[in-house]
Amino acid sequence: MLTRRALIATALAIPAASSFARPAGLATAAPMVDPRLVERALAALFRHHRHIWSRDVIAIADFGLPSSAPRFFLVDILRGTTTALLVAHGKGSDPDHSGRLQLFSDVVGSAATSEGAYLTGDAYEGIHGPSRRLIGLDPTNAHAEERAIVIHSAWYAEPDMVAKQGRLGRSDGCFALGKADTAAVLARLGKGRLLYAGRIDG
Fold first, then answer.
1. Cβ atoms within 10 A of the Cβ of 20, count?
2. Sign of the C-alpha dihedral, residues 103, 197, 170, 65?
3. What whole-number distance in Å separates Cα of residue 148 and Cα of residue 186?
4. pLDDT in the model for residue 78
5. Where are the domains of the chain?
6. How far apart are CA 79 and CA 84, in angstroms?
7. Which residues, other chains included, contact 127 with Cβ-Cβ below 8 Å and sequence gap of 6+?
8. Closest CA to 115 of 3, 196, 182, 21
9. What is the three-class DSSP state of 21?
């Protein structure tokens, strides 16, 4: 049986001698991501390794940052690169539309963003165009499928919204990105990969 250290080292294709808490591969690839959030993502990768069968690319959404800042980090571990993109949060997480997530919720009908680990599912063509299903792996996002929480594009998540109003619009809890960014995420973050959403402050 693999130890936790061996599992993470194998999954991320890094030397076994690397730091246990923050393996060099991910730490090098994602230096702009809060290291505490990286540690949580790695813990989720270990905790759910039986479900997450592709570990070359992962996504980390840092909802401690405002919606005006690129906070959806697409981390390519094999290439050692990270792409930072804008992403909207749910109406229920920011009822005053301040541009900052105030709370997480997984309650059906809450229109809120849920924290935790997600498994990327099938791509499909939905009402918002090309989209990808998400499966909640933690108690904090266990209703993701029932709530139809997915990755999709939205007009209110385009970069020009920040220029116009200083923040993005809000989703119903989905990870909504601009059209071009959605295409890139769907292409690179394929089925069977990890998306981790969380925040450190608050």
1. 12
2. positive
3. 17
4. 85
5. 28-198
6. 15
7. none
8. 196
9. coil
